Amino acid sequence: MIAGKYELVVPAGEGGMAVVWKAVARGAGAFARPVAIKRIQAARHADPSFIKMFEEEARVGSQLQHPNIIQILDFGRDEDGGYYLVMEWCEGLDMFQWVRSFTAAKTGDPNSRTPWPLVAAVGIETLRGLGAAHERELDDGPAPVIHRDVSPSNILLGTNGTVKLTDFGLARAMDRASMTRPNVIKGKLAYCAPELITGAKAGPRTDVFSLGVVLWEALAQRRLFTGKNDLEVLVAVRKGVVPSLSLERDDLPAALVEVIHESLAANPDHRFQNAKEMARAIAAILRSSTEAADAEPLGASVRAARVRLGKDTSSSAGTSPAHDPDLDALSVNLSVSDVEMMDPSPAGAEPNDRPKGLWTTEGPSAALPLTRKK
């Protein structure tokens, strides 16, 4: 029991810096509410830089009130002095698991393809959450929050059909001085926008690009930017070769393919300029579809996916709203010149060794230094 009211039930996720628990908030009488609790690993209690980042996650998250963003409910210290963050619990799957459940179906099974209307609907809801963060306002004016880690595991799909964006642990709040060292990429490398590699600052259009990668992969059911190591992934991102989704599957509306490819433009000026603009474009496509794509069919799809993955009977089945990345795992020194030297093929060249299967892991988020060598 934490703070006399939070009962830890079962670990839901663990990384190198924190553990997320499924828990129950107990109150007077028979009051009980499922929650998620994120706790700093004991080895990190004395790390002031991580404590500061954890506090910033709590501060920023508590100010983002939106139905498509996981809500922060409490932040405090337990009896041993360790910090904890209490969040709403989303029962279901993350998008990574949901997509994988279709690939797990037998080859040739018509149900092995992700339903494009549902992928589009998830995109719209995620964009609404991003839009709320990007347009955050405080008493003294606009204070945008850039997520910087939009990826499949940070998009939660509830069994009731809700869509929640989570894990603002790497977010950049514009009302605070930057907590990132110069020339450092934060986030999962395969989902970062190409301009970040050359030192540009994160902004709404970098989040739009990241979501474009998520949607492309959800429809193609394979990784977009791949490599044998971190450097090769960065090279692939910088080159920006995006195979047409129309070549990956033949059931997609041309307009949806166009929207996703626009979000993946290498030049940020050629992308949607904000999340709302992209959400409106996808919504217009869904309005012309005869297939239902609201909360009811999405919830049914999530429940069916849990059955395919064997998660329908586990006491710990659910979705952690704080997939905790191991921020140290990819903290290696790479220089911009390193990336340039590893790019022997001309821009636009199609790699011939890209894996065709769905990813088995999306990799941890990273704080990746990029130092320019002289």
Structural description of this entry:
With 374 residues, this protein is of the alpha+beta class. It folds into two domains: 6-88, Phosphorylase Kinase, domain 1 (2-Layer Sandwich); 93-369, Transferase(Phosphotransferase), domain 1 (Orthogonal Bundle), CATH 1.10.510.10. It contains eleven helices and 14 strands. It has helices spanning 48-62, 95-103, 116-134, 194-197, 204-220, 230-239, 245-248, 254-263, 275-287, 295-308, 336-341; strands spanning 6-14, 18-26, 32-40, 72-77, 83-88, 92-94, 137-138, 141-142, 145-146, 155-158, 163-165, 172-173, 184-187, 366-369. The protein has a five-stranded antiparallel sheet. The chain has a three-stranded antiparallel sheet with strand order 6-10-11. A hairpin with a 5-residue loop joins β2 (18-26) and β3 (32-40). It is globular, with a radius of gyration of 20 Å. The N and C termini lie far apart (54 Å). Mean pLDDT is 80; it is low at 174-184, 321-361 and 366-374.
**CATH homologous superfamily of the largest domain?**
Transferase(Phosphotransferase) domain 1
**Any idea of the CATH class of the largest domain?**
Mainly Alpha
What fold name goes in the CATH topology slot of the largest domain?
Answer: Transferase(Phosphotransferase), domain 1
Q: How many structural units, i.e. domains? A: 2
- Stretches where pLDDT is under 50 for at least 5 consecutive residues are 174-184, 321-361, 366-374
CATH architecture of the largest domain: Orthogonal Bundle
Order of helices and strands: EEEHEEEHHEEEEEEEHHHHHHHHE
Number of helical segments? 11
**Strand arrangement across the biggest beta sheet:** 1-2-3-5-4
User: Portion of residues in helices?
Assistant: 25-40%
Rg is 20 Å
Strand pairing plus helix content: what structural class? alpha+beta
Strand content range? 15-25%
- The count of DSSP E runs of length 2 or more, i.e. the number of strands, is 14
Shape: globular
Task: Measure the end-to-end span.
Answer: 54 Å
Give the integer mean of the pLDDT values.
80
Biggest β-sheet strands, sense, barrel: 5 strands, antiparallel
